[in-house]
Amino acid sequence: MTTAGHNATGAEREESIARRRSAISRYLGHRSLVIGGVGLALLILIAVFAPLLTWHDPYMQDLTSRRIPPIWHGWFYDNPKAGWLHPLGTDPLGRDYFTRLVYGARISLFVGFSVVALSCVIGTTLGVLAGYFGGRIDAVISFIVTTRLSMPVVLVALAVVSIFDGSLKVVILVLGLLLWDRFAVVMRSVTLQIKSQEFVTAARAVGCSNLRIILTEIMPNVANSLIIVATIEMAVAIIYEASLSFLGLGIQPPLPSWGLMLAEARPEIFFAAWMITLPGIALFLLVLFVNLLGDGVRDITAPEGRA
Amino acid sequence: MLRFIFRRAAVGVLVLVAVAILTFALTNAAVDPARAIAGDSATADDIRAIRELYGFDRPLHVQFLAWAQDIIQGDLGQSYRQRRPVADVVLERLPVTMILGATAFLLAVIVAIPLGILAGLKPNSWIDRCALTIAVLGQAVPNFWLALMGIVIFSVQLRLLPASGSGTWQSFVLPSVALAYYAMPTLMRLTRAGMIDTLQSDYVRTARAKGLLPPQVVLKHALRNAILPLVSVSAVQLGMMLGGSVVIETIFAMQGIGYLAWESITMSDPPVVQAIVLTIASFYVLLTFSADVINAWLDPRLRGS
């Protein structure tokens, strides 16, 4: 997948690339690791302690206080309805928007982590097996990966969710069963590299079984790549969940999924654009932090693989 | 070379067969076709009659083989909802998706490659940092939200562009940008990485030592090799755009196969869904196959594997 280093010859050039790259990673790498890590930790804390951050109930409808604009509409447009009772306003059913956004972080994070856990197990198993054994096993697994890649994810996910009716469990299962391809591809190539190293040959020479070599020699050395792929897949899973929920074939009302909130705000697009802006910003920040964390980990563990 | 092409084509056909089996299994698990055709008011006897009439009472593998045979002969079946051939339904919706995919892809390439070259020429300069920041921010923006914000700004507030439809060229602007935006960061990062790598290589140093002008070195020597990896990634990205257009087309109510897919799923019309999944998969297989062949033609070392 990566392009760097595939035509490397000459130690001198490699060294100069490494020097240049490490300058970039010193500038951006640690910064993205810090921003991504702190931001993600903050969002996780918000999700965990959601009930302490707000005095409203995310499902509590109040028909007397529908479509209240956020607080800054009171400051800049002199809108008398805006006030501190609902700092980010209310939705068309009168539910507090801030509260729903805070509880929505729980859904996105839960989906992200669960999908990655599932797809990581599937993809890593396939990838390591293909890379380690090679030959016919590799050919079969590569074929499975190619087949999976040629099926459009959104379409297949939509079709499957429509069969079983949308729910958190179904969305997680469907995405987990679809998004393992990158794990498989990366783990395969990483395993191929590690397999040819001396400590693996040594382990085989002293009579270790294949299973033991995979578990004790290969797995500890793929961990870094695993973390990087996991952050990429987590970001992808979060966006897919939001897209499915937005199309009405994902998380179902009244759960406060950010994608679903965007769908519910869509009819308001002419009158209350802020209702569309806010969940999008929440999604953007979460995905940005996850991506930055992944970029940061990559820069520290494998600066030469930076693209 | 010919052997390589044949082998890749064979794999492509096998992949399509696998996709067809999965699609068939999936959509047959989805809805009882007899019930879907009969409608909500049908009695048990009606449904049984339809089941026998359409052959839904046969074993699944027999149904699959019959279905596959029809497909090979170009018959994709009948739409349950529209009561006419699926092939007609899909074909009349295909042009919109094709135009959308092509414009979005061109847009992404036009922005990504020059930006990637500039960034790669001077790594760590201000322009490089700007490009990287754009890429990092761009990858975090969900494209359906970008589409909604585009409607808010350009349709609702400025009243410049239509918020839905696919009748005029104006209605393609917002969807194309929203779709292109997603592929842009990947292409930009690849171009940048490729430029950094090739600019360090011996043949570029030789070209420089011969006294060639910098633009010549960059465009003739470095760029050609730098964008090699872009060929296969472009094929993948274009294929993803066709699949990803489901969300965008639905937002803008564009008459393409993405919107058709969403309509058919929500109205349980499995033959149309099957046909669309197969169409997109075929395009994907065709694109990656072409990319493999182009790459093998450009770089003979790849033909062996």
Explain this structure.
- The complex is a heterodimer of chains A (307) and B (305).
- Chain A contains twelve helices and no strands.
- In chain A, 72% of the residues lie in helices and 0% in strands.
- Residues 1-10 and 303-307 of chain A have low confidence and may be disordered.
- With 305 residues, chain B is mainly α.
- In chain B, 79% of the residues lie in helices and 0% in strands.
- Chain B contains 13 helices and no strands.
- Chain B has helices at 2-30, 33-38, 44-54, 60-72, 86-121, 126-140, 143-157, 170-199, 202-209, 214-226, 228-252, 257-266, 270-298.
- The mean pLDDT of chain B is 84.
- At the A-B interface, helix 1, helix 5, helix 6, helix 10 and helix 12 of A face helix 1, helix 6, helix 7, helix 8 and helix 11 of B.
Radius of gyration of chain B: 24 Å
Mean pLDDT of chain A: 85
Strand content of chain A: under 5%
Quaternary state of this entry equals heterodimer
Mean pLDDT of chain B: 84
Helix content of chain B: over 70%
Residues in β-strands, percent of chain B: under 5%
Helix content of chain A: over 70%
Order of helices and strands of chain B: HHHHHHHHHHHHH
Order of helices and strands of chain A: HHHHHHHHHHHH
Describe the largest sheet of chain B.
none
**SS-based class of chain B:** mainly alpha
What is the molecular shape of chain B?
A: flat
Q: Largest protein interface?
A: A-B, 59 and 65 residues
Radius of gyration of chain A from the CA trace?
23 Å
Distance between the termini of chain A: 10 Å
What form of chain A results from the Cα inertia axes? elongated
Low-confidence stretches of chain A: 1-10, 303-307
* Discrete helix count of chain B: 13
Question: How does the major sheet of chain A shape up?
Answer: none
